[in-house]
Structures are given as structure tokens and as C-alpha cells.
Recover the amino acids of this structure.
């Protein structure tokens, strides 16, 4: 079915583009993964691009949902709000080298399309400017730009768009055709691609994203781009610039490739780890961080701004890369991937299979302290920050990281039920046996983990964990963000709310008093163990006060306290 075209750049066009780009990357993901040989042949470029755009889609949808609640009669959100959400979503969800660069491309476009105090750039001329700035800012974000990569494809798209005159559809199609031609030329620019007989995987992904932009403004999907289906396949260039697996591209005498730092792109002695993290830091600190990380490794990409950055680097000393982030600011969502010795730095990326564990637990947690607690219990965690729920792709990635035949999935949030179900279904198609336990709070997940026994039969373990989670009543103490109607009455912004099983039961002004009331109500139904998980902003004395309260009023009830670091002031569990 043809897409109804958008005639100019507005919030709806951004939403449509993001959705179509996600669909396009979903169709091409496996193909792009298969041709991923640079900068390391770890076979995940397509997946990383998909997850990055999925995060952008979620952020844009959140803006539309909030607008419908706050301003239902005002039509769609502003263009600036939509593009900022797109860029922010891509930044916080960026995966791998390619996803990080794509996030910067989207941020570069946003810096043109969301300029405060100026007439919005909503026409073809505005799109030309946005694509040019996107390509330039992405190149600047890479420590040592290499031709024959996604950077070359982005530059060619911007050049072609600059030469086009007309509306957004005309400019988008010119950018797409320029990108296709540049993609076909990448094997001639980068020897590792020539030897493998493929086009650049990141560039292939960008062409898919630009194809979605064409469809957004014209209503018609452009002609597809093919690529070699496996790094050992060979390619020939067709008249339309596409690459298909048929005739071999032969190596010439100058086909000895090296990355920009002088290290051969297929060197088996390349860095052992990929390190990625989000970083809250000032611009001056990030400038120093770039220098330090550049000395530690290669494939350095630092994108972002306005106090929030996404850092990507390949290093041998992962700890030093993280420590550099700590010195610059506050790193979080830290992901460290071990490439393995002498495997992914080879041209074909052939690596000995790592043995699968029999069983693992994957859990979504709302705070870094809880992530540490769950990690100590052996769980693979996915961090959910306030207002930034994980997408299904992040959960699938976590299941893959767990690398087990059987996985127990704990979403720990009622709102993540469908997301977790979609992730579980995807993981099952990949041969993993997944059981989804519908935990609605992190305290229920703690209870489930406490009875987890990997040595038991899978079904028995799942039943035991489900029973423990279901027997745990949960509550939360937080601060109201806006005025609203609740089951306990009308609350004002700044009021302290006590929620039991997801419903507001207490409205007050004092955190400790509200928490005490909530705890008393929960213990009226009985219980043997109270779990308190403190947020970063919880009063220093609240744990001691509540523990004393339990000792005085319920002699047979034990209390355990954890520091969770979550957004809520306090989580309470009663078993």
C-alpha cells in the first residue's frame, strides 16, 4: 500500500519518516548484519541501526502521546518538539559505531530544523540545509574519519541534495540517489570491503533510512538496494548503482587497507573491547575525554551535546575507557562487548562459538543501584530511566547477551508487558526458550530472584519464581508532576503520592509520613518480609524510621533495605 505523502516538513512528517525507516531497517537488518566487515566484522550493524531508530520512534511517539493529553485541541506537536525527540531518542538508544553515527546525523538535522526564534525550515531548501549539516556534524564527531564508510555516503547524499531544486520530495529523492551511488563506490574506497566483496554496511543502512524519507514525501518507496548476502559473496555494480552478489571485485595492487590510525582494518591484534556509554558532562570535559580515549583505542565516536553525550570506542583496556568517562562526568548505561581474540578483526568475522549457559534471568531495572543488586544475583539487566522505557529491541539484545538456552524475563513494570512479550516472541524465533513472568515492580523481581534455582527443571523454576513474585504486594512513593484526578482525590504538582499496586492510595506533603501510611495499609493484610528500595532523593532517615515502625507494630516481620537509585523516592514490597 502506498504511503500518503507529506508535502512539507512538520511533526507528522518526522513521525512518518521514523516509522518507515524502522520498517525498512527491519526488512534489511539481516542483510546488513551479514555484510558488516568494517570497522570490525561483528555482524551487528543492521541490528544496531534498527535499535537506534526504534529508540527514536519511541521518543517521537511519546511526544505525540503527551501532546494528545495536554493539548488535544491543538492538532499535532510542533516540528521542533518532534525532531528534538527523534534526535534525543536516537542518542540515548544508539548502539554500536553505526548507530552512534546515525544518532549524530539526526542530531545534525535537528540543529537546523529546530532553531529557536527563527522561521521553521519546512520546505525543500530547509531539508537541503539539514542534510548538509547532518553530514558535516557526523564527520566532526568521528575522531579519524575514513572514506568508504557511512560518512562518505552521508556526504554524497548532502551534495546531491544541495544540487537539487524543488520541494521536499525532490530533495529527498536526490539525496537518496546520491547515497546509492556513493554506497556502490565504497568497495573502491576501502580495501577491506573490496576483499570481502561487499558495500559498507553502515552506508547501506543510511540508504534505507533515506529511502524512507523519499517515501514520506512522495508516497512511493524508491527502488530497493541489494547487497552481498554474506561477506564471502562477491558483488557487481549494476547500472542503477546497486550491488548484487555475482561477479567478484578483484583486489588490485593497491588493495592493502588500513584504518585512519594506521592499523590494518583486519588486524587480528585489534582492540579487544567495544565500550559504549551515555555521559552527562560539560563540553570542555568532553574535549579532554576525546583526547584521552583517542590515545587508548580506535573507532572513537563521541556524539551529542547540551550536557548529554553518547561515547563509543574500541579499546583493549575497557576499565580505562570507563574511568575516563567518570573523570569527565557521569557515565551510565555502560555496555562493554568483548570481541574475542583473533576473531572479529579478521575479514570474515569467523569466531569460535561461545558455549551457551543453560539458563539466565533478564530483568528491567529502574535504577543503577538495582542494576548492581540484580547483577550480583546473576541477572542480565536493562536499565530503564524515568521517561525512557526500553524498547523491545533492547530486551532482545539483553537476551542475546545472556547467551543462554533458557531465559526468564522480568519486565518489572506493568507498562512493559507488551514490549516484553514482543521481545520474548522474537527471542523464541531465535531458538531461545523464554518464560515471561509479568512482574509489575522491581520488588517483585527481587522476590522472584530470591527463589531462582538454575539447577531445577525450567518449568519448576518458572513456577516458583512466578509464585514468589505474585505473593509480593508492591507500593511506590513518588512526587506528583502535575495536577490530576486520582482514586484518593485531586493531587497537585509537588504532592507526595503513595501508590499501592499502581493506584494512588495516599496524597500528602511529607515523604516519611506518606510512606508510613502506605506501609501500615500493606501490612494490614499480613506479611513476613518488608523490602524497602530507596531512591536517590529519599530522605536520609526514612529507612531507619520505617524499620523502627515495623519492629514496633509487627514483631514477626523482617525488613531489608537496598539503595536502588531509581526515580521513585521509595519502592516497598511486602511478602
Amino acid at each position: 500500500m502506498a504511503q500518503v505523502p507529506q508535502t512539507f516538513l512538520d511533526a507528522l512528517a518526522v513521525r512518518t519518516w521514523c516509522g518507515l525507516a524502522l520498517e525498512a531497517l527491519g526488512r534489511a537488518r539481516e542483510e546488513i548484519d551479514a555484510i558488516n566487515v568494517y570497522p570490525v566484522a561483528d555482524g551487528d550493524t543492521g541490528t544496531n541501526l534498527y535499535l537506534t531508530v526504534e529508540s527514536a520512534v519511541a521518543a517521537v511517539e511519546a511526544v505525540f502521546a503527551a501532546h494528545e493529553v495536554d493539548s488535544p485541541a491543538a492538532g499535532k506537536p510542533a516540528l521542533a518538539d518532534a525532531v528534538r525527540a527523534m534526535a534525543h531518542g536516537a542518542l540515548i538508544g544508539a548502539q554500536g559505531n553505526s548507530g552512534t553515527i546515525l544518532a549524530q546525523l539526526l542530531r545534525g538535522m535537528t540543529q537546523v530544523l529546530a532553531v529557536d526564534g527563527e522561521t521553521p525550515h519546512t520546505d525543500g531548501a530547509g531539508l537541503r540545509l539539514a542534510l548538509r549539516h547532518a553530514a558535516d556534524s557526523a564527520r566532526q564527531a568521528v575522531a579519524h574519519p575514513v572514506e568508504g564508510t557511512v560518512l562518505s555516503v552521508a556526504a554524497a547524499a548532502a551534495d546531491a541534495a544541495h544540487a537539487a531544486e524543488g520541494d521536499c520530495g525532490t530533495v529527498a529523492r536526490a539525496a537518496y540517489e546520491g547515497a546509492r551511488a556513493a554506497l556502490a563506490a565504497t568497495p573502491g574506497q576501502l580495501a577491506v570491503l573490496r576483499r570481502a566483496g561487499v558495500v559498507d554496511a553502515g552506508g547501506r543502512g543510511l540508504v534505507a533510512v533515506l529511502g524512507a524519507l523519499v517515501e514520506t514525501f512522495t508516497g512511493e518507496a524508491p527502488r530497493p538496494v541489494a547487497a552481498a548476502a554474506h561477506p564471502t559473496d562477491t558483488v557487481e555494480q549494476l547500472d542503477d548503482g546497486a550491488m548484487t552478489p555475482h561477479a567478484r571485485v578483484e583486489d588490485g595492487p593497491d588493495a592493502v587497507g588500513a584504518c585512519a590510525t594506521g592499523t590494518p582494518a583486519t588486524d587480528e591484534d585489534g582492540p579487544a573491547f567495544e565500550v559504549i556509554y551515555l555521559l552527562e558532562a560539560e563540553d570542555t570535559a568532553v574535549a579532554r575525554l576525546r583526547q584521552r580515549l583517542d590515545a587508548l583505542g580506535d573507532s572513537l565516536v563521541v556524539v551529542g551535546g547540551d550536557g548529554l553525550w553518547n561515547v563509543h570506542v574500541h579499546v583493549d583496556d575497557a576499565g580505562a575507557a570507563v574511568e575516563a568517562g567518570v573523570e569527565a562526568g557521569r557515565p551510565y548505561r555502560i555496555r562493554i562487548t568483548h570481541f574475542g581474540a583473533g576473531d572479529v578483526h579478521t575479514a570474515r568475522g569467523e569466531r569460535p562459538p561461545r558455549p551457551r549457559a543453560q539458563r539466565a534471568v533478564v530483568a528491567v531495572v529502574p535504577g543503577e543501584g538495582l542494576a548492581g543488586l540484580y547483577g550480583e544475583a546473576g541477572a542480565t539487566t536493562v536499565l530503564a530511566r524515568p521517561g525512557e522505557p526500553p524498547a523491545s529491541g533492547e530486551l532482545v539484545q539483553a537476551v542475546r547477551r545472556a547467551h543462554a538456552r533458557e531465559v526468564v524475563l522480568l519486565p518489572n513494570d506493568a507498562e512493559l508487558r507488551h514490549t516484553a512479550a514482543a521481545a520474548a516472541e522474537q527471542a523464541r524465533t531465535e531458538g531461545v526458550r523464554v518464560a515471561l513472568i509479568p512482574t509489575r515492580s522491581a520488588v517483585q523481581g527481587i522476590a522472584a530472584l530470591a527463589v531462582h534455582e538454575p539447577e531445577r527443571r525450567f518449568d519448576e523454576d518458572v513456577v516458583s519464581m512466578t509464585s514468589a513474585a505474585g505473593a509480593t504486594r508492591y507500593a511506590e512513593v513518588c512526587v506528583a508532576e502535575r495536577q490530576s484526578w486520582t482514586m484518593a482525590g485531586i493531587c497537585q504538582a509537588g504532592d507526595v503520592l503513595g501508590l499501592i499496586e499502581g493506584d494512588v492510595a495516599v496524597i500528602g506533603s511529607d515523604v516519611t509520613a506518606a510512606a508510613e501510611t502506605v506501609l501500615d495499609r500493606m501490612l494490614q493484610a499480613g506479611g513476613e518480609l518488608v523490602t524497602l528500595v530507596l531512591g536517590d532523593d529519599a530522605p536520609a532517615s526514612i529507612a531507619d524510621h520505617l524499620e523502627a515502625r515495623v519492629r514496633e507494630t509487627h514483631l514477626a516481620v523482617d525488613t531489608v533495605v537496598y539503595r536502588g537509585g531509581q526515580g521513585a523516592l521509595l519502592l516497598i514490597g511486602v511478602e
Summary: Confidence is low (pLDDT under 50) at residues 228-268, 340-352. The first helix runs from residue 11 to 34.
